């Protein structure tokens, strides 16, 4: 096994492990740290791919990913919880041990479901696709099982990072313009959600399930 | 089995018996220094064992043969593993059949026998400690088995010696993501199984939180000396196995006297470093609530499972 394949796999594994950590840790600050590490791992993966294929565009994408996913988005969200530093996911719909086991099952599902893609793409990149799919599935699960608005945003970001991971692996890197579009999309989404979250916090809503109807 | 492999086995046993209590003492000394106390000397566990061995033995009236047998089982299982496991050398006796899963379950027999003995005393603390210890044991086991599966994937073999030898021969195995995830899970398992923080506070005598101390509350005199010795041997074996899976450098690859001497020194140094690292970690961490333990151990399990998936993906 080459060093390149090993390093690539390590970066992809860090992305998936960070998704699991979002489920594992209750403190909202730890969740943001995990998201930030996930962004760094994605950027490292893009850098590795770019260096391996001598593709300058991919290095620019890596820089963009680092800026947006590792710094900007976690930074924006950190400002929301700055008022309550010890904030936790107190009462998730599915408790933590059970949700970790479910995350394990989702990983196995991703492993089985990704077989055709792995067979199609092949090589050191293609066989890591199950890890990206697992990240997407875990992200969906976080959105379903968590009550705090910030955790649900984290779930959305996990889905996005998982999709980005699959995109990097399957296409050996995406064009800068595509990544720019998707990153800015997510960034604007997070900005809007952040504003909404600040309003919710100001209104004293801690749990999204408490919202029965939308008032003006 | 020839004379040379018997001698290496005896060397490993002597190393674990002598070194186990010293490891315990080292960890206590590091902790007390960091907490601003002088603390006992490193050799204190040995002095305690020697003192206890001369004391009178008392046993609960209602207890059966299980109570006196448990310390013997604990020491015997630890000694068996100490002879067979690849701690200082890759050529211990019976090296062709040293199965990883068998080694782990022989070690776990020791903890189960202690839990049985605690139930045997018929006291409230014994029952509480046994219930907690077995709960943790039941949660640790899946993580441990899946971690072993992840470690054995590259070789298609659960032979412990082959796994360590592979790591010592090819350093690229050691930095593989699957290997690292399995070892991450192993850290959680070892902390739980050897009763260290954040799972159990080894220095507590507060009734409501203690686990391991509640198990051995009724032991006294020579029985307690055996229990202390057995537990410290188990700690040394867990650490020794772990450091050899992380960094098997210096381990003796053939049965020469010099190589084995080097292997002994290397494993002693690595285990001491691991002990200092765990002591540092223990100073900075708080004990988890009992009801939060499943979260930690499920985390260990999922790390191991990801290790297996990664190993399967990368093949």
**What percentage of the residues of chain A does DSSP assign to strands (E)?**
under 5%
Low-confidence stretches of chain B: none
For the record, the count of structural domains of chain A works out to 1
Mean pLDDT of chain B: 88
Beta content of chain B comes to: under 5%
The count of DSSP E runs of length 2 or more, i.e. the number of strands of chain B, is 0
Which overall shape of chain B is indicated by the principal axes computed on the Cα atoms?
globular
Mean pLDDT across every amino acid position of chain A:
84
Radius of gyration of chain B: 19 Å
* Overall radius of gyration of chain A: 17 Å
The class by helix and strand makeup of chain B works out as mainly alpha
**How many H/I helices of chain A?**
9
Our measurement of the CA-to-CA distance between the termini of chain B, rounded to an integer number of angstroms, reads: 36 Å
Order of helices and strands of chain B: HHHHHHHHHHHH
What are the low-pLDDT stretches of chain A, counting only 5+ consecutive residues below 50? none
In total, the number of domains of chain B comes to 1
């Amino acid at each position: 096994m080459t060093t390149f394949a090993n390093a690539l796999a390590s970066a992809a594994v860090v992305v998936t492990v960070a998704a699991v950590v979002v489920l594992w840790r209750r403190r909202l600050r730890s969740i943001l740290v995990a998201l930030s590490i996930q962004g760094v791992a994605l950027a490292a993966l893009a850098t590795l791919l770019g260096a391996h294929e001598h593709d300058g565009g991919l290095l620019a994408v890596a820089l963009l990913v680092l800026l947006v996913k590792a710094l900007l988005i976690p930074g924006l969200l950190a400002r929301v919880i700055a008022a309550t530093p010890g904030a936790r996911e107190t009462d998730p719909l599915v408790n933590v041990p059970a949700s970790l086991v479910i995350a394990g099952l989702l990983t196995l599902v991703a492993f089985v479901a990704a077989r055709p893609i792995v067979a199609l793409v092949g090589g050191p990149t293609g066989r890591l696709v199950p890890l990206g799919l697992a990240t997407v599935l875990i992200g969906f699960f976080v959105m379903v099982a968590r009550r705090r608005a910030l955790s649900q945003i984290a779930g959305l970001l996990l889905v996005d990072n998982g999709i980005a991971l699959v995109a990097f692996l399957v296409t050996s890197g995406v064009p800068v313009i595509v990544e720019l579009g998707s990153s800015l999309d997510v960034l604007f989404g997070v900005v809007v959600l952040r504003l909404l979250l600040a309003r919710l916090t100001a209104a004293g809503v801690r749990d999204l399930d408490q919202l029965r109807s939308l008032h003006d | 089995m020839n004379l040379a492999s018997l001698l290496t086995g005896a060397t490993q046993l002597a190393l674990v018996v002598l070194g186990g209590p010293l490891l315990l003492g080292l960890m206590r000394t590091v902790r007390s220094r960091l907490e601003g106390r002088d603390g006992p000397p490193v050799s204190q566990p040995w002095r305690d064992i020697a003192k206890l061995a001369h004391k009178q033995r008392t046993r609960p009236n209602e207890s059966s043969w299980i109570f006196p047998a448990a310390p013997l089982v604990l020491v015997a299982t630890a000694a068996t593993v100490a002879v067979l496991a690849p701690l200082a050398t890759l050529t211990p006796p019976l090296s062709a059949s040293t199965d990883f899963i068998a080694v782990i379950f022989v070690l776990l027999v020791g903890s189960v026998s202690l839990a049985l003995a605690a139930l045997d005393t018929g006291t409230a603390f014994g029952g509480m400690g046994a219930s907690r210890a077995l709960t943790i044991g039941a949660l640790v086991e899946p993580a441990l088995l899946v971690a072993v599966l992840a470690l054995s994937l590259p070789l298609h073999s659960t032979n412990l010696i082959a796994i360590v030898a592979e790591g010592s021969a090819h350093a690229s195995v050691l930095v593989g993501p699957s290997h690292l995830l399995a070892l991450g899970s192993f850290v959680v398992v070892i902390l739980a199984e050897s009763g260290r923080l954040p799972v159990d506070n080894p220095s507590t005598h507060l009734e409501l939180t203690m686990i391991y101390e509640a198990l051995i509350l009724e032991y006294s005199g020579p029985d307690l000396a055996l229990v202390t010795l057995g537990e410290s041997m188990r700690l040394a074996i867990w650490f020794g196995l772990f450091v050899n899976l992380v960094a098997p450098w210096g381990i003796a690859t053939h049965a020469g006297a010099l190589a084995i001497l080097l292997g002994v020194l290397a494993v002693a140094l690595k285990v001491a470093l691991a002990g200092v690292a765990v002591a540092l970690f223990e100073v900075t961490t708080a004990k988890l609530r009992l009801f939060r333990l499943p979260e930690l151990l499920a985390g260990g399990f999922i790390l191991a499972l990801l290790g297996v998936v990664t190993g399967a993906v990368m093949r």
